[in-house]
Amino acid sequence: MMHLGAFLMESGHHVAAWRASSVPPRAGLDFALYRQLARTAEAACFDAIFVADSVAADEGPGAERMSRSARFEPLTLLSALAAVTERIGLIATATSSYNEPYTVARQFASLEHLSGGRAGWNLVTSDNAAEAGNFGRAEHIAHEDRYARAREFLQVVLALWDSWGDDAFVNDKATGLHHDPAQRHELNHRGEHFAVRGPLNVARSPQGRPVLVQAGASEAGRALAAASAELVFTAQPNRAAGQAFYADLKARAAAFGRAPEALKVMPGVFAVVGESRAEAQEKHEALQALVHPEAGVALVSRMIGNFDLSGYPLDEPLPELPETSTGQRSRQQLLSSLARDGQLTLRQLALKIAGGRGHLSVVGTAADVADVLQDWFEAGAADGFNLMPPTVPAGLDDFARLVVPELQRRGLFRQRYEGRTLREHLGLAWPAHRLPTEHLKTAQA
Amino acid sequence: MMHLGAFLMESGHHVAAWRASSVPPRAGLDFALYRQLARTAEAACFDAIFVADSVAADEGPGAERMSRSARFEPLTLLSALAAVTERIGLIATATSSYNEPYTVARQFASLEHLSGGRAGWNLVTSDNAAEAGNFGRAEHIAHEDRYARAREFLQVVLALWDSWGDDAFVNDKATGLHHDPAQRHELNHRGEHFAVRGPLNVARSPQGRPVLVQAGASEAGRALAAASAELVFTAQPNRAAGQAFYADLKARAAAFGRAPEALKVMPGVFAVVGESRAEAQEKHEALQALVHPEAGVALVSRMIGNFDLSGYPLDEPLPELPETSTGQRSRQQLLSSLARDGQLTLRQLALKIAGGRGHLSVVGTAADVADVLQDWFEAGAADGFNLMPPTVPAGLDDFARLVVPELQRRGLFRQRYEGRTLREHLGLAWPAHRLPTEHLKTAQA
């Protein structure tokens, strides 16, 4: 069976989504809308909803034409959504670059208990100057340093999540013993980036620990994901690239002694769905027509490594750019090949990525979309997909109403939830409790 | 009219609450229970619910006999409660000692939008070694340094909350202008403790900004509260002390040019309520009988400045203790005078504070409790009270069912909510937008 995530982004994934008449104003801070989206995704039996993040407002030329500068913080948003849903997983992004591991471990553990075991943590590193500037750093941290910090951050968080045994809180009212001191484990960690004593002030979580999610595509990102991630989101423009990434990541995981099913690979898919192909095309063209040239160029500028392209001619080929020093190197390569292979001008590239930002994109009927997903799934390019609705709520509604039943008819997707936790939805094994020292030792080796 | 907060603490405020048969097991991580409590408080028209915090598990002798080591993190908990309530205010504690101002500003701003303007931030400083050890500090920060950091932290948070103008997000679909660049304000702050560029990636909040809450009783704490707090929680053992504190704080606020009604003072009240005095006494005695001596001594040890008293004889007077270097100096003085004035042994002091921890405590009928609250309110000792239920849910139910109607009959408490935001419930003025530079300048002066 295929897995499905609903990747929710403010007004939708299309850069002009906020201008569509069906999209509520100020969607990024509209809780009623998010509640509706979460319930739609849950009614369609999605494995999880997923929220990306940035620890800075969008900036630079064209920012005022994009809808990314005002939105909910993921952990507070998903905690609120936990209270109005029952089964669907809740995956929040949190950076290891500008947080403390105790705080991140604690907030996710809290979300675990609030949701009855439905939390996932998308570990990212932060890569741009705007984010650095909000946390007292003049420059962003260099790529390798970010990953060294991320690795240690992760080992501390894992150890904190296991700082109480499964049965630590005995709650023995008769004798007055609230917890078993033998199941209380300090970390006493002193590493290169962090010194953390522990224990966490939250009990071990309903699904053992939150599901570990990553999306790094670089060498360092893949290495970390292969060693530790249980779910990997990725941007793949075509099936061959998807297959290569999938095979590479599963092989890397095997080298760490991990079974292929312990790590699920889910490419993003930008899908514009219609009752007919003509209707889908119309919907897509209507959105494309709303792309202000400044917003289009702004999107390319950001996705290609934060190079300001606002001065470049729209109708000439994308200029040659030096390799970015941000964490967007893989995305830069992806967009550069898209432009080169398709001989695209800057304007054409902007329109090409205005929806899917380089991810797999499909415009068509439910059968068209299901065909592509089935093909990727059966060809070993994906264990599932992270759906990127072009607009909300309509884009998600379309997929839930048209594509999900088609996938279900084909026996590719569940008709009801069998489990209660995100781990159960994804078919991931229960993580047995390990002593904090084991987590810290393993990751240091 | 009097204001009422519901101070929710795991199993309840009595140190033995978790052993009472009516209290659900593992109450600190039971969301269904918290939802019930929030709805009870909202049905009774409380101004707010309030959640305290510590960024460490409880430790030291007797910790295993207390219920403080496993509980929800406040911002995630209150975000979830925002989704299942409509009107009641949501006040979360967050420390300035081990957080980044951008993160705190952002999570509270997010809670503001999730809740439609019902958030309050209880700014605290962290004062013990267990907390320091979880954030890479060998020792806790000295008292004055903590407050210097807190002052700068607050000015940065205020500036971030105003980093977008009230009407910044114009969302003009026709022209494609999402926000007005003229209403986007960077901070470019470089201070002693923080360097933060801004702007925040959340719009200005529904009530202008979250309500600012503080509870510091020291000289530095009072000075900060007088300058900036809109609501002050305090522990006062008797009316005379309450009057002195109230007068002092209002006078200090006046010295900053602030009107008396711009700052509300709310002492805690531990109330055990029965249909009759005998029933109230029985309830209280039943809880007192559940206090394990080790838990009682552990509580005194913690409240008196983290001195380990576990080796001291139970039935002799409290030993003389040196002045604590933690932030609990005021509480240490309060408990020392309680013991000295009442000529209490260690065991007697433990039982005396087992419920209210030195706060105003009342055991009696609804009329008895209402009499005391009315007396303090009319005598200028309080603008309202922060209710500390002995157990949950029963202790809160009793107060809501018996005392609230009595206060309403006396015309002292609202019968329905008039406003929608916490600021409206408390009768606090709308904070006009100020440029970040003004916030940063004022606080530095």
TrEMBL record, chains A, B:
The keyword Oxidoreductase applies. It holds the Pfam family Bac_luciferase. Keywords: Flavoprotein, FMN, Monooxygenase, Oxidoreductase. InterPro entries: Diverse_substr_monoxygenases (IPR051260), Luciferase-like_dom (IPR011251), Luciferase-like_sf (IPR036661), NTA_MOA (IPR016215). Residues 28-381 form the Luciferase-like domain. The keyword Flavoprotein applies. PANTHER family: ALKANESULFONATE MONOOXYGENASE-RELATED, C2H2 FINGER DOMAIN TRANSCRIPTION FACTOR (EUROFUNG)-RELATED. NCBIfam families: FMN_nitrolo (TIGR03860). Belongs to the NtaA/SnaA/DszA monooxygenase family. This is LLM class flavin-dependent oxidoreductase. It comes from Ideonella azotifigens.
